[in-house]
Amino acid sequence: MTRHDIDDDLLPDSIDAQAADWFTRNRQEQTGASREAFEQWLSVPEHAKAYRAFEQLWGDLGELQQHNQPLPLPVRRKPRWRPALAVAAALVCALLATHAGSPSNVWQQQIVAQSKGTQTIVLPDGSTLTVNANTRLRIDFTSHQRQLYLDQGQFYIEAAADKERPLWVHAGDATVRVVGTGFDVRRGTEHVVVTVAHGQVAFALDGKTPTLLGAQQQASLDLASGAVQQQVLDAAQVADWRSGHLSFRNRELASLVDELNLYRLRPVLLANAKLGRFKVSGNLDVNDPDALINALPALIPVKTVALADGRIRIEDR
C-alpha cells in the first residue's frame, strides 16, 4: 500500500493513525521499553481519547456477527466515531501484519476477466471465488489478513470462516466485512451492490455507520448521492448471473443499465437522469445483452440510438 492509497489524516503524524498503530502493537508481544513508550504516549489526554475511541470502534466491528437484524449498527456513546478512525479500523489487519514482521503464506493475485463468461478460483484459505465478465480484482492474503480489492465488475464468494482474519472487500470508498458467509459484490460506474446468500456482512461507505445484511438481503449504494437502498430478494435471484440469466422485476432503468454494461465492450448511456427512474421487468441473457436493449422500447416509452463508436444511447421517445 502506497502513501497515495491512504488519506492524509491516516498518515503516521495523525493521532488517529497513531492510535490504530498502538492498538495493533498491543495485540503483539511487547517489550518493557515498548510498554513504557505506550504509557508515555497515552499520558496525553488527546491520545488517550483517540485510543479509547478506536477500542470502541474495533469492539463494535467485532460484534457485527452477533446481530441478526439488517439494521444500522447503533453508536453506543458520543462523540461519534471520526471518519479517520473508521478507515483506520478497515486498515488494522494490514497494520497488524506490519508489526508482526514479515508474514508467512503471502498470496497475492490480480484477476482481469474476459469480456464473456465466468471463472471460479479456490483461494488458499478455502474460499471459493466466482468472477463475472469484465472484472478487475486484486487479492491480497497473508497469515494476518484477507483483503479483496474490486476495481470493476462483479464476483461471488463463499468465504471460509476465519475469526482471526475477517475478510475485507474494498470497492472504492465502500467496504464489506465478513467472517464466513456467501455473498455477491458488484461495482459499476453508478452503483456498488452487495447481496448476501447466507450468513451476514457489514456494508459501509467510508466514514458512515455500517449496515448489517443477512440472507437474501441486498444493499445498493448510489455512488453519486451516497444513498443506500435495501431490498429482499428471492433465493434464486442472489448471484443469478452465474447461470447466465438474470431475472428482475420493477428494476430502475439506471440500476439495470449499470449492471448491463458489465456485459458490453461499449457502454449504454442514458440521455438524461429522468430516464433512469423508469421501472423495468424482464430477463437478461448475459451472453446477449443487446437483446434486452432492443426490447426496451416495447417495455417503456424510450428509443435506442446506436452510436458510431459502438455505444448505445437511450432517449425519450
Task: Report on this structure.
There is one protein chain. This protein has about 325 residues and is an alpha+beta fold. The protein folds into 2 domains: about 240 residues, Sandwich (Jelly Rolls), CATH 2.60.120.1440; about 70 residues, Phage tail protein beta-alpha-beta fold (3-Layer(bab) Sandwich). Helices cover about 25% and strands about 35% of the residues. It is built from 6 helices and 18 strands. Strands 1, 2, 3, 4, 5, 6, 7, 8, 9, 10, 11, 12 and 13 form a 13-stranded mixed beta sheet that branches. A hairpin with a 5-residue loop joins strand 10 and strand 11. Helix 1 packs across helix 3, helix 1 packs across helix 4 and helix 3 crosses helix 4. The longest helix is centred in the first third of the chain and has 19 residues. The chain is elongated, with a radius of gyration of 22 Å. The chain starts with 14 loop residues before the first helix and ends with a strand. The N terminus is likely disordered.
